Amino acid sequence: MSDSVEVRAPAEQTEGTRSQILRWLKQVGEAVTENEPLIEIETDKVTVEVAAPGTGVLREILKQEQEEIVPGDLLGRIQADEGTAVPVAAAATLSAAGPVAAPAAAARPHGGGLLSPAVRRLLAEHGLEAADVTGSGSSGRITVEDVLQAAARPRAAVRAPAVAPGSEAAPAGIRRVPHTAVRRRIAEHMVQSLLHTAPHVTTVFEADLTAVLKDRAARREEFAREGVPLTLTAYFVAAAVAAIRAVPEANSRWTETALEIYETINIGIATAVEGTGLVVPVLQDAPGRDLLQTASGLHELVERARGGKLTPADVRGGTFTISNHGVSGSLLATPIIINQPQAAILGIGKLERRAVVMEEDGRESIAVRPRCYVTLTLDHRVMDGHQANRFLQTFVQKLTDWSAQ
Question: 290 an active-site residue?
């Protein structure tokens, strides 16, 4: 008699993150192989594939696509082949197999790799052929992110995807781009944070980066020899740590009964990913890192984010967020939506040379200095204006008076 293997939602999940079934990669009655990708689960941060915990036939689907789930939920059952041992740990709970980037499922070949069921479905949904997409995975394999990026680009002559019965067709002259699950989650998260959770207030300062740029120029080659690019964000992280130490409330979360101030400082870095949206990988234990370790950690996180290789662990545990929107030319952004359940988010505007009035020995003069606007958007339930101002005063002073660490 065959054994039944339970398929459960991953037990590990970022606190506060909502999850849903994005798609089943197999249908009831289809054969599955142990460790073959079986389900795609979407959170508001990453997409992960869940592997089959055993070999056999998918006999039951208990949670449907687009249905919300919680860690440990029973999602379905596999009827195991006779003589196949049922892994006890796997039957109890599955762990996420990682980001949807290197699927192991058999599929038709393309270039140096195979197409996973998820990639094949997305190609069909967007009316694309595999030849239309450049793969960024191992050996040129096409990933989910590759398909989403290709679908977001204007295309001159691509066959239109079939319109499902009851769905809305685009009027002439309009190209419809269906929302991805990640895009929908981002939208829901933003609306919930701004309109239903936290009263947002923003304070604005200006930072002089003369000392930082001088230090960066002196140490850039040293870092490059270590294979690490020295970005300004590394300096912003260090200055944010100093500011949080001055105003610990910025590194907290509001609850109905108390303000919970985190003892650890894990800083999320808002990162725009083409074709996906905004993700926030987290630099763990920021105070425990020197500038080289900070720069190295940031480089690794950003590379994984832009390569579609973030795992749930990479976006877990953030206590404070930095949005360096100036890298794309923005001078000032306010309010920046708070990444719930955090209490504040720091915004960094575009660095540019500006004429400023300087005073020395009682005499005023005009000088040209590299400066940028910095903002702190905060949950006004957590902090008042004087605390927010003290945070930015500390942050700006750290950058202005920068000395090698």
Answer: no
Q: Name the 3-class secondary structure at 75.
A: strand
Which one is catalytic: 285, 384, 386, 401? Answer: 384
d(CA 92, CA 153): 42
Match 């990026």 to its residue by tokens.
149
Phi, psi values for residue 361, rounded to 5° = 55, 40
Going across the sheet that includes 96-99, the strands are 68-69, 19-24, 37-43, 47-51, 96-99
Of all residues in the chain, what percent carry a pLDDT higher than 90? 45
Same domain, 86 and 137: no
Considering 71, 99, 127, which residue would you say is the last residue of a domain? Answer: 99
- Contact assessment for residue 241 and residue 265, using Cβ atoms and an 8 Å cutoff: yes
Lowest pLDDT segment from 46-60, 108-122, 304-318: 108-122
pLDDT tens digits, residue range 113-137? 456 656 776 777 677 888 888 877 6
In a domain, 177, yes or no: no
- Active-site residue, 380 included: yes
